[in-house]
Amino acid sequence: MLAGAASYGLGAAAFATLALAWRLGGRSRQGSRLEIPAALTALWAGLEALRSLTGAGRELVVLAELFRSLGWLGFLWAGIRELDSQMGNRKGFSGLGGGLLTLVVLAILGHAAFLLWPGRTSAYLVQALLPTLLAVAGMVLVEQLYRNAEPQDRWSLKFLCLALGGMFAFDFYLYSEAMLFSGFSPDIWTARGAVNAMLVPLIWISARRRPDQIWPMALSHRMAFHTVVLLGSGIYLMLMAVAGYYIQMVGGDWGNALQAVFLFGAGVLLVVVFFSGAARARVRVFLSKHFFRYHYDYREEWLRFTSLLTEGEPGSQVYERSLQAVARLVDSPQAALWLPEEENAPFRRAAHWNWAHLDGQLPARHALLAFMENRQWVLDLTDPQAQGEAFAEVELPGWLVDDTEVWLVIPLFWHDKLLGFMVLARSLGKATFNWEMSDLLKTAARQAAAHLVQARAAEALTVARQFESFNRASAFVVHDIKNLVAQLSLLLANAAKHKHKPEFQEDMLATIESSVARMNRMLLKLREAPDAGGEGRVELAAMLEDVMRSKGAYSLKPGLELAARNLFVRGDRERLVRVVGHIVQNAIEATPYTGRVDVKLGRQDEWAVITVEDTGAGMDDAFIRERLFRPFASTKGTGMGIGAYESRAYVQELGGDIQVASQPGQGTVFTIRLPLLADKEAIRDE
Question: Within 13 Å and on the Cβ side, how many CA atoms surround 443?
Answer without folding.
Answer: 12
